[in-house]
Amino acid sequence: MEQPEPCEAARAHISQIRKAKGFTDESDSIGTWVTDDLEASLSILSEGIYQQSTRFLMELIQNADDCSYTHDQVPTMDMTYRDGCLRIDYNEVGFTARDVEAICKISSTKTASVNQTGEKGIGFKSVFRIADVVSVRSRSYSFQFDTRRRLGMVTPQWAEFPDGARPGFTSILLRIRDEDDKSELIQELKSMGPGRLLFLRRLRRVNIQIQAKDGAIWRTRLGRNDKAYLNSAEPRSITTLFRDSDCQDYWIYQHVVTKLPPEPRRTHCPESVIALGFPVCTDTRLGFKPMIGPQQVHAVLPVRDYGFTDVNASSMWNKALRDAALDAFRAAIQHLNSGPLRYTWPRYMPLPLALSDFFQSFGSSLGEALAHDPLVENANGEKMAPQSVRYVPPQMRDETELPLAHTSRTASKYLSRYYSDSDAKYLNQLGVRTLSDDEFVRDLRALSTDAGFATWKPEGWHVRLATVLVRMLQGPGYKQSIKELALVPLRDGRWVSASSSSNIVSLDWEMGGGAVPRALGISFLAEKAAKHDVQKSLFRALGVKTLSARELQSLVIKKHSAEDAARMPGRDVLTGKYRQAREVYVDDKAQWPADAHLDEFRPEIPVLHADYSLPLESEKRRWSTWLCEEIGVRKAAEITPKLQSLMVGKYSKSTYPQLLRREVLIAHTVFLFRTGWTCQEQKPPRFLVASQTGQYRWAQKVYLGGLDKYPADPHFDEFRQEFPVLHADYYYYYSRAVASKDDDRWSAWLCEEAGVQQGSEIIPRLQSLIVETHSRADRRPHSLEALVAHTVFLFRTEWASQGPEKRGMFWVASEGGEYLNAPLVYIDTTQQHSLGRYFNEFREQFPFLHTKYYAAVKEEEMDRWLGWLRGELGVQDASDLVPRLQSLTVMACSGPNSSLPSPARDMLISRTMFLFRTHWTCKTPPLDRFWFVTESGEYLQARRVYLDATGHRSTREYYGRFRHEFPFLHAEYLDALVQDEVDAWLAWLRDQFGLRQVPRLVDRSNLTMLSADFNHLLSTWPSKVFLVFLRDEWSEYAHHLEPSGVGDSTASQLRDQIGAMMASCCVGAARPLRDTLTVRVFPSDTEPSILPLQRLLDIPDPQDASWKFLEKLGVTIRDNLTIYLWTLEKVQGSVVPKRFAYWLYRRIQERQEEDADAVRYDECVWQGAQFIRTFHILETIYPECEQLFRQVLVHQDVDFEVLGSEAEALTTATPLSLIVDLFGEISARACASPMDDEFVGRLRSARMFPVDEGNAETGFDDLYSGANDSEWYIADRPHLRESFRGVVSLLSISPQDIARAMPLITALGFENRLLSRITISNLTTRGEVKLDPNQTETFRAKSKLITRMLPSSVPQRKQIVAALDSLRVFVASRVLLEWTITPADDRWGGHMIKSHLYDDGVRAVVLPPTASTGIELYLEPDSGSCLPIEVAHRLADICGIAEQVHLVYFILSQTNLLYVECYLDRHGFLATPTELHAADREPAPVGGAEEERQLAVAKSLGGDALRNRVFTTLKSTPRISLSFFGTEQLPP
Question: What is the DSSP string of 1326-1351?
Answer without folding.
Answer: EEEEEE-HHHHHHHHHHHHHHGGG--
